[in-house]
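Researcher: Go.
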Amino acid sequence: MPTAPNSKHKAAVLLIDNYFDRIHWFILLFHQREFRDKFCCIYTPDPGEPKRSTTRPRARLGDIAVLLAVMVTSLKYTNDSQKDLLAVSGVDAEQLRNRILMALRLRLLDILSVGTIEVVQTLVLLGSYYLFHGEPELAWPLCGCALRIAQALNLHRKLPPRGPADSVLKPSNAARKRCWWAVYDIETFCSMLYGFPLSISDADCDVDPLDLYDELSASGIQEDDPSQPTLLYYKCAMSTLSALVKSTLVDLYGTRRQRDPQDDSILDHASRLSSLVKKVEALSSRLNDWHANLPEKLRLGKLDSNTATRQDPKDISRLPFEDQLFQLQALTLKLGFENSKILIHRPLLSFKIITPPHPPHSDSNSNRRVDPFSLATETCRESALQISLIGLCPIVRHAADTYAAAFMSLHLFTAAVTICIINSLDPLNPKSHECKLGIRRLMEMQTLLKDKSIVASQGLEITKQLMSLALAKEIDAMFDVSCPPVNPSAGRPSTNSAAQVSVPESKSTQTEIPPSADPIIVPDHTTSSSKTPKTQESISTEVDPCIFEPASFEFGENPSMTEALLDFGQVINLPTNQNMSNDGVSELDAVDEAQENYFVGQDQGWIWGWGM
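Model: Structure:
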């Protein structure tokens, strides 16, 4: 039964309001006031109201496309009471969402041909929608189209001076910058999560950073006081983080690195490793500076099981709406910060320094040696545990009903993989229990989010399989009594079939390798299963690139990490609904199921080595 125009308008207003309550704070793609003005012009309850003469049909198509993209995203995050209100207006939320998606797909080429900033906004919304809801293979080409149109519109360049007539027909400089940085963020995010190739060259971009107080925002009339940030501060901070992540992908990973062919020489191994350590240290310093410069409202700080639970969840609901949004933004920035630390330090986990069992003692502190590889292991472990502790923050319950739900799910999976792999390097490490508690907390959050996000649902199943493998390794290590116990303060030998990396308990228990010690190298292809286990002295993990001199060390591939990656890579590539054991599923069925697995086509575990 057709509904009255007024009912349709009420349903549309509900969806628009819901978008700005639950989604806009996360993406901040356009200015709310400007969008609502366009909405009133396009979707008026009075069908007899004349259209504005300045609205051209092609431009109108772009405006309608943005409106539909906003609605389809909003429909994904409507609660039961909102669905009931939509039903009163004769709208079935799920059916409407599918119809809008179908319409946008069928008219995609027509929309692309318009080539306006509204088209770029539409593609960013659709790309992020598919990225955060389990279809990265669709998200990537949509983001690519957004990038190409944005570049054609010169959104990546500074806006030249314009005349008064231009300001009427063209978007403002603030709107252009918001749109460009949204494209930049989603492009970088896709590359970071799934290993997609980077398509933006920073050298070709001279657009200014986002304004904390731009002319079209309500915050523009506020005093420029960094101690009292507006919601725009989050977008500026996230764009800065995206630029840092992009630098990490370019400098550290895969074929993205710009290397001299001569660097591939084995003789140049030491200098290449020294360069890698310095790049990691520089990126880590930039990341820490970024985090330190965040306003207090947007910085969660270091979490622990006590401080994370001080606030009653009911207290969140009593806060002003803007303060709730600040807490949601702080949560998102914390996830991005910890995930970026894992991304930066991951390359060093593939190496290790081998030292003699009993090096001569030395009290010299001026020439002490450091082990950046153990530091990287500890940093990745700590960052993953910090992500697991986020589940104890009351704001997580509120975030589950917003656009941050899928963003959280993706980072929870990264943390789960990190903890399981690092814990498997030394299953009997004193920190093993803490890691298992971290995995449990991650699974609790994935369970909370699984009805909201397919990413969380599939990530939960894979996390269970990863943890099962990690526990199996711990059981094997527990019953392997062939190696005599050693004092943990002096280092722990490998307790499984692979050599392990020694991770110091704390700075107070760290010992230093004297510069006169003669190092020992384990060839890259050798595993500890064929050698007598050696006791490894703890090495200082305080990073100082001036102290770390790889030429004075012998280093090699970390065989324990190689073995762990092979084992966990097999788990990652299993369909989520298939057990590790052969349960009678035919080979053809397994292939079909694998093709439906979210993490197979473009898996989030690419930084750990499988699929690279």
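Model: The beta strands are 351-353, 555-557.
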